[in-house]
Design brief:
The chain is mainly α and about 120 residues long. The chain has one domain. The longest helix is centred in the middle third of the chain and has 29 residues. The radius of gyration is 14 Å and the shape is globular.
Length: about 120
């Protein structure tokens, strides 16, 4: 079932979102300071490309204070608008019963967009 849902996601916007994340990741990696943020955007691209069957899990508390500081910087750089966009799409998809699985994937992307540092995708 996950493969079928992933194919639907891929065809109806998942590829476009993943390509946008990948392009922004390359743009961020043009500077040395932007490399950590570009790597986190690649994490978003991976989930946006094939979200069903992937989980976003916390690395646990010992990820360090640097992850917290980087998350705060991430919020100001663009994490909050990305998360709000995924929240909007999640709410729109959850209006219908058929769209609920897709809305839940947007909520997963919203969580990752808010806190990319200190999390991993499995």
């Amino acid at each position: 079932m996950n493969i079928f849902l992933n194919i639907i996601w891929f065809v109806f916007g998942g590829l476009m979102v993943a390509v946008e994340y990948a392009i922004s990741s390359v743009a961020m990696m043009l500077t040395i300071i932007g490399i950590p943020f570009g790597l986190q955007t690649l994490k978003l691209a991976k989930v946006a490309l094939w979200p069903f069957g992937t989980e976003v899990v916390d690395d646990g508390w010992p990820s360090g204070c640097l992850a917290g500081v980087m998350n705060v910087v991430w919020w100001f750089v663009g994490g909050v608008p990305i998360a709000l966009t995924h929240m909007l799409w999640g709410l729109i998809f959850c209006v219908t019963v058929v769209g609920i699985p897709f809305g839940m994937q947007h909520f997963k992307l919203m969580k990752l967009a808010l806190f990319p540092f200190g999390t991993k995708v499995s």
